[in-house]
Amino acid sequence: MTVVPSVLVTGASTGIGAAYAERFARRGHDLVLVARDRARMEALAARLRQENGVAIDIIQADLTQPAELATVEARLRNDARIGILINNAGTAIGGSFIEQSTDDVARLVALNTTALLRLASAMAPRLAKAGEGAIVNIGSVVGLAPEFGMTVYGATKAFVLFLSQGLSLELAPKGVYVQAVLPATTRTEIWGHVGADVNTLSNVMEVNDLVDAALVGFDRREPVTIPPLPDAGQWDALQAARQAMLPNYRNERPAERYRTLA
Ligand SMILES: NC(=O)C1=CN([C@@H]2O[C@H](COP(=O)(O)OP(=O)(O)OC[C@H]3O[C@@H](n4cnc5c(N)ncnc54)[C@H](OP(=O)(O)O)[C@@H]3O)[C@@H](O)[C@H]2O)C=CC1
Ligand SMILES: N[C@@H](C=O)C(=O)O
């Protein structure tokens, strides 16, 4: 791996991914930008090359299409210059579960979970062998909150959090940093995709503030970064409560409350 590793950013044509690309370019990292809209990535790349003097490649890929996803996987598997993956591409769909079509929820799962998983899987063995590198997975606070009413989207983000925490436990001892970033409402185009006008929402975080905060967590090597959460102690308490249950799961007999009929 080079001293300043290249960064591959998925969903880099706009929103959170474009902000990550900008921030890493400012830090002097070469970039590989991935999304479907080549024109937008070319415009971003031209500006970032000019402002920062970094090298930028573009891969136009629809990450829900297996052949196009495979191209990005191969790049991550084989390009030893890439030391950081920003697994950011994701979308959301509007409506309740019974209003959403089966094909639409399957596409959502394919992008938000399968693509993210396959890209991490393509890259992790190389990083583990090198003993360095980072994988950043963009989740959402919605993954902690079925009450927010975005059930399938939230389920994909719960997957991202669990995967990230598990990978962190597996890969940190091998020198590889894994971070889950959990934004809440952030001003990007995603809200248009769920049929909402972001300008009517309250407490909306600006995308650069979100990414700058996520990068503070990145630099501190936090496993989970929740930029909008004021009290980090609440997250720690949730983890402590979860971990306190761990010794209680394995038992020969069902719990007492299930051994009576009433
Ligand atoms: N904004 C918010 O309030 C929050 C966002 N998030 C998460 O942040 C991440 C980024 O979202 P955000 O920036 O807000 O969303 P945007 O809609 O602004 O950007 C999404 C990015 O993903 C790319 N993308 C979408 N579909 C595909 C696809 N099939 N293949 C490849 N790339 C694709 C888009 O590019 P293109 O169309 O060119 O392919 C775009 O670059 C997502 O994972 C989202 O779930 C989490 C919590 C809150
Ligand atoms: N992306 C947002 C929903 O559409 C969120 O995760 O809050």
From TrEMBL:
The keyword Oxidoreductase applies. Keywords: Oxidoreductase. PROSITE patterns: ADH_SHORT (PS00061). CDD domains: SDR_c. Its EC number is 1.1.1.298, 1.1.1.381. It comes from the Bacteria. GO terms for molecular function: 3-hydroxypropionate dehydrogenase (NADP+) activity. It catalyses: L-allo-threonine + NADP(+) = aminoacetone + CO2 + NADPH; 3-hydroxypropanoate + NADP(+) = 3-oxopropanoate + NADPH + H(+). It is an enzyme of class 1 (oxidoreductase). NADP-dependent dehydrogenase with broad substrate specificity acting on 3-hydroxy acids. Catalyzes the NADP-dependent oxidation of L-allo-threonine to L-2-amino-3-keto-butyrate, which is spontaneously decarboxylated into aminoacetone. Also acts on D-threonine, L-serine, D-serine, D-3-hydroxyisobutyrate, L-3-hydroxyisobutyrate, D-glycerate and L-glycerate. Able to catalyze the reduction of the malonic semialdehyde to 3-hydroxypropionic acid. Belongs to the short-chain dehydrogenases/reductases (SDR) family. This is NADP-dependent 3-hydroxy acid dehydrogenase YdfG. It comes from Bradyrhizobium cytisi.
